[in-house]
Amino acid sequence: MTLAVRRTAFPSRVTVVVLLALAAGLVFAHRLYRTAEISLSGAVLSVISSYGVAVVPERQTVYFGLGSDTPLGLRMTPECTSAFLVLPLIVVGAVMIALRPRIQSRVLVALAFAGSAVVIVNQFRVLTLVGLVRWLGVDTGYYWGHTLLGSMVSVFGGAAALVAFVWLATRK
User: Fold this and answer.
1) pLDDT (tens digit, 9 = 90+) per residue, 106-129?
2) 132 phi and psi, to 5 degrees?
3) What NCBIfam families does this protein map onto (predicted)?
């Protein structure tokens, strides 16, 4: 009895290696990723806010409400970044391509869609937090925006992105 092991095609092997390198990069360069993510938050807040917004990239911090009675700074910590929600998608995508090279293009499209969705959801989470701080004040708004609603936005958004990833990657 012999077990036939299907070899991964060369382009698929390269894709798997690139995805795994990207995953490792997210782990080892998470500070750079958080800097980019908080800079994006600052850009979005600058567009929608009537008060001043400042980003301090080296601290992964965005300050908003500058010039108002309630300025506040938000720091993008490792726990709050979307990197660790994107990471499992990349690893699962690499495994899927390694096991079934013929679905490579579907997995990559699904990965791009779900990864983008996770980043957008995390930006929405930051905007929710900012909106609640402006509406309810710093203490109450931060509590509701960070602890309760922010967590719910991340969980439901991450779950929706995962479902979309699996559906897009495995549909025929």
Assistant:
1) 999 999 999 999 999 999 999 999
2) -70, -35
3) exo_archaeo, exosort_XrtP
* Distance (Å, whole) CA 87 – CA 71: 33
The closest alpha carbon to 150, from 77, 92, 90, 91, belongs to: 77
pLDDT digits (tens, 9 = 90+) for 81-97: 999 899 999 999 999 99
Nearest to 65 by CA among 76, 56, 52: 52
Pairing of strands 72-75, 52-56: unpaired
Q: Is 75 helix (H, G, I), strand (E, B) or coil?
A: strand
Q: For residues 136, 140, 143 and 146, what is the CA-based torsion angle, rounded to 10 degrees?
A: 10
Whole-structure pTM value = 0.86
Token output for 11? 């382009």
